[in-house]
Amino acid sequence: MSIIIYSSIYRKVIKLKLTSIQLYEETKKKLERKKSHPRESYDSVVNRILEDEEISSMEEMFREADKIKDQKKYTTKELVDMIHARRGKI
Question: Are 31 and 45 in contact (CB under 8 A)?
């Protein structure tokens, strides 16, 4: 099914394709609770959720893990000394 929308602002026709997806009843209830208004569409809810969440790619996660792995490990005494040095207590 397609919806055709005429945008007077841009003076063009936008054709959107609609699809159906299968959800478990519990998932649908969770989406309903995320609605900002009872008549908000599920499409709007899903898009809002996807925009709000930053999902890292696997490559980004591996890069971050490598950074952490390459960082120097400090003893508790070294950390306390660094904190005191930054505060000017040494």
Answer: yes
Amino acid at 20: S
Cα angle: 5, vertex 8, 14; to 5 degrees: 30
Residue 63 in domain: yes
71 backbone dihedrals φ, ψ, rounded to 5°: -70, 150
Range of the domain at 73: 56-90
| Structure token pair of residue 13 | 């026709």
| pLDDT of 14 higher than 70 | no
pTM of the model: 0.45
Total number of domains in the chain: 1
Q: What is the pLDDT of residues 21-79, one digit of tens each?
A: 899 999 999 999 999 999 999 988 888 888 766 666 677 777 776 776 667 777 788 77
Asked if the structure places residue 81 within a domain, the reply is yes
Question: Half-sphere exposure of residue 82, counting CA atoms within 13 Å on the CB side?
Answer: 6
